[in-house]
Amino acid sequence: MLTCFAYDSFYAFQKRVNTLRTLKRGRSELKIAIVGLGVAGSYLAYKLRDQHQVVAFDKLPASKFDAVCAWGTSKDGISKYAKDCGLNFDDYIVHDGKRMLVDVGKETFDIPLKGLVCFDKLKFIQDTADNPETHYGAWVDKSNFKNDFDMVIDATGLSRPLLPRIKEDYLIPCVQYKVKYKETPYDDFYIKPFDDLSGYFWYFPLGNGYAHVGAGDYKKRHNEYLYRFLKEHEGEVVHKTGRPVRIVPPSMCEPFFDRNVVGVGESIGTVYPLLGEGIIPSLHCASMFTDYIENLPVYRKKVLEEFKIYETVYKFIKAKIDGNFDLKTQFFGLLSMFFHMKLNEKRYGLEIRLSDMLKVMRA
Fold first, then answer.
1. Could you tell me the pTM of the whole model?
2. Could you read off the pLDDT of 237-289 as tens digits, one per residue?
3. C-beta neighbour count of 47 within 10 angstroms
4. Residue 329: which residues within 8 A CB-CB, separation 6 or more?
5. Whole-number Cα distances in Å, 14 to 29, 151, 260
6. Whose CA, among 142, 169, 294, 321, lies 20 to 30 Å from 149?
7. Where are the beta strands (DSSP E) in the chain?
8. Could you tell me which residue, 81 or 10, shows the higher pLDDT?
9. What residue spans of 85-237 are helical by DSSP H?
10. Nearest to 1 by CA among 167, 242, 244, 198
């Protein structure tokens, strides 16, 4: 819940934006800075550039710009956002999955897929972030940012350097390798959840013998497991990257704004905690922002409503990690997760079966 100060500041900020629209320029153009060019920031750079004066910043130099994560997403869930930016998502698909092999220790089972693909996320972002004024290699925080913009969008994901620190953050450390194989160990998606759902290992095919091999674990066992896997399945490591993933829901990431700064995407908690997946949620959040840029209180309300299920999922996962899980008391939470994902199978790209979820929970 917002403090009185933050609540008043929010409406003061909105009033300032509206005044600028009507008095400063006499039209709806704003001078906007976008900080962070992940999927949310690059999407906003494209969507806002025609109506507003947009300047984009990213901390990585153009030569080292990267797109962290396993590059897996749902074709059905992301295609509309690609279309918003004049792109055909089919052009970016590098692997079209048919099944996901899930290893829960004593058994493995297949989950039929419904549009889960791997895509060239780096190229997708680069093609989306087609903005005339973009500053790469620019680390931006409160101490060094010349904030002479009407609005600043913090789309930095994990770091959120322009917004207040989250009081109860929860981060899952992750490491990922891009590996070139002569003979790939798997021909499709493979995951292995860790004990207590504290994270999981993943193998995502990228085509032409390449794969993203990675793992994240709150209890920090992921490096050991990765070492064993890479030793057992030898290949040429061509790239390594790593960063934590935030799994707290938007309701725990307030305030969404500070002065004239507004958060979008993972910086305000749009990562689905069960999967650590934030591509489509962050794009959805960015799209909502463009819909309500003239009414930020409604934007905040819509984000909290749209991602409310993330609270249930987060509490469920945290209980497992903390050792406080009891299936009887958590069963309604499990059912909420199941029905949410079952009703959105194409958005998640896989067939959702309660029996599969129970196998993972009991592993």
1. 0.91
2. 999 999 999 999 999 999 999 989 999 999 999 999 999 999 999 999 999 99
3. 20
4. none
5. 15, 10, 9
6. 169
7. 31-35, 53-58, 72-74, 93-96, 99-103, 108-112, 116-119, 134-136, 151-154, 171-172, 174-180, 189-193, 199-207, 210-217, 236-242, 245-246, 257-258, 261-263
8. 81
9. 121-128, 222-232
10. 167
Task: Examine the pLDDT at 108 and tell me if it is beyond 60.
Answer: yes
The angle at the Cα of 353, spanning 280 to 116, to the nearest 5 degrees, equals 35
Sheet holding 72-74, edge to edge: 72-74, 116-119, 93-96
Sheet containing 174-180: order of strands? 108-112, 99-103, 189-193, 199-207, 210-217, 174-180, 236-242
For the chain, give the percent of residues with pLDDT over 90: 75
- pLDDT at position 196: 82
- Cα torsion for 33, 36, 42, 45, to the nearest 10°? 0
pLDDT score of 354 = 95
> Angle at Cα 313 formed by Cα 308 and Cα 318, nearest 5°?
130
Distance separating alpha carbons of residues 253 and 268, to the nearest angstrom = 5
Does residue 187 have a pLDDT over 50?
Answer: yes
Q: What is the tens place of the pLDDT at every residue in 291-314?
A: 999 899 999 999 999 999 999 999
201 Cβ neighbours under 8 A, 6+ residues apart:
191, 192, 194, 214, 215, 222, 225, 226, 229
How do the residues of the chain divide into helix, strand and coil, expressed in percent and rounded to 5?
40, 25, 35
The b-or-e profile of 299-333 (16+ CB within 10 A means b, else e) is: bbebbbeebebbbbbbebbbbbbeeebeeeebeeb
- The answer to whether the CB of 346 falls within 8 A of the CB of 76 is yes
pLDDT at 197 over 80: yes
